[in-house]
């Protein structure tokens, strides 16, 4: 599947007739693939133009703009490969406003991200390169605002630090426990979630209690933590785990007693449900066995062969022998 190069027409409030005239004229020209190719060959920056294989350029159709922007846009769609063989997107936006828009660069970025999202929704697992291009014909000249989207921020330098490098990663699976234990009030969350699937929670009960004493947490957070461990953790002895926490982190003893009672009640209820299910299953099995024995008796009375009876009823030789001897 080819990635699609999009020629995007941006419209803003004008009279309906003037807007449709601008739109119709632009589409009339850029609907001609030769004109559209010339447009991009002329106006794309050289370092981007040299990456585009204009001989592969073709007109497509389709729309992917979000509902809140669709009323301001009409689109023409092109597909084009790059000189390295990769497909890519190219945007071209026409500005219909009589006044420039300060945050136009951010709007271009939104269109670009929308194109990337559509590409993923088509079953691809990597993002295409999207080149936004703004075509402006307003009354203010020259265009007074930056088309660098980072300039839309109140602090462009900070924005550049955030968005031009890899996003911060907190990978607790690769952290040593000693490092996690130094993380103050968030250490408890990180330690439990690191080991919730891989270790017996009883093994880290001492560390949990120590953190509770060092960094007191609200009772609501504590209860959520204990229920999380009970429901998602691998705990060999849940009662011993709670007793250890209660003995070492005495401020939470009352909550632990309440939690223990609730877990016990829940366990009893689950036991009852499992007992009912096992009883029903056993009853079905006994009913099926009685039915098989009845069929076997009828077949024996009619002189059926032993192998045929075993196949028809699923009974064993021992069970058939007991039936014959009765």
From TrEMBL:
Residue ranges the record marks as coiled coil: none
Occurrences of domain Transposase (putative) YhgA-like (ranges): 21-214
InterPro entries, A to Z: Rpn/YhgA-like_nuclease (IPR051699), RpnA (IPR010106), Transposase_31 (IPR006842)
GO molecular function: double-stranded DNA endonuclease activity
One Pfam family named in its UniProt record: Transposase_31
GO terms classed as biological process: DNA recombination
Domain of life, source organism: Bacteria
NCBIfam families: T_den_put_tspse
Family according to the record: Belongs to the Rpn/YhgA-like nuclease family.
PANTHER family found in the cross-reference section: INACTIVE RECOMBINATION-PROMOTING NUCLEASE-LIKE PROTEIN RPNE-RELATED, PTHR34611
Name of the protein in question: Transposase (putative) YhgA-like domain-containing protein
Protein's organism: Sodalis glossinidius (strain morsitans)
Lineage, opening ranks: Bacteria, Pseudomonadati, Pseudomonadota, Gammaproteobacteria, Enterobacterales
